[in-house]
Amino acid sequence: MEGHGSVFLFVPNLIGYVRIILAFISFYFMPSNPVIASSFYLLSGFLDSFDGYAARLLNQGTRFGAMLDMLTDRCATMCLLVNLSLLYPTYTLPLQLSMCLDISSHWLHLHSSMMTGNTSHKSIDLSGNPILRLYYTSRKVLFVMCSGNELFYASLYLLHFTERQPVLGVGV
Question: Which residues are catalytic, by number?
Fold first, then answer.
């Protein structure tokens, strides 16, 4: 990547910065405006699929970009889970355990990937764990799993504000 300009201004990282701004707008509105909060949260998550695409297309994959992407994903999910813990206090412990598992597993995987010289945590040993191999080598599987996880948590968030409210004439 030498001679290509500052890594901080690579297109995938610029997309990452936009994702961070969108996430912060979402966090600000989470307690008071679920429509704005969920819209910005989901838009930030949607852009997640474009930073990796841009990195591959423009040959701008870097360790910084991989870390930025991972940290943005983890922070966004953690902030939503904290909010869910406030909205659903009965489920605080399972949500906390989910946070711990999410952070620790991603950190361990990312750290071990970087220690072996990979520029991305998505580069894995093809002879290794078959579940991780499928997860990281099939973009469709990765997309479905990540978007499904985020949509599940976003749905729980929205459910709190729509419980007992009729939607299209039907109470939820």
Answer: 73
Residue 164 tokens read as 């007992």
Helix, strand and coil percent figures for the chain, each rounded to 5: 75, 0, 20
In the DSSP assignment, the letter for residue 6 is: -
Residue 171 sits at φ, ψ, to 5 deg, of: -75, 140
pTM equals 0.82
Task: Write down all domains in the chain, each with its CATH number in brackets.
Answer: 7-171 (1.20.120)
Burial 144-154, CB ≥16 within 10 A → b, else e: eebeeebeebb
**SS3 sequence, 32-72?**
CCHHHHHHHHHHHHHHHHHHHHHHHHCCCCCHHHHHHHHHH
Residues near 4 by beta carbon (within 8 Å), at least 6 away in sequence: 10, 60
Digitized pLDDT (tens) for each residue of the chain, 172 residues in all? 444 679 999 999 999 999 999 999 999 999 999 999 999 999 999 898 899 899 989 999 988 998 899 899 999 999 999 999 999 999 999 999 999 999 998 888 777 777 777 656 666 666 777 887 787 788 899 889 988 999 999 999 999 998 766 655 554 4
Q: Which residues pair with 170 in a beta bridge?
A: 167
Q: For tokens 């206090």, what's the residue? A: 89
Beta-carbon-side half-sphere exposure of residue 12 (alpha carbons within 13 Å): 25
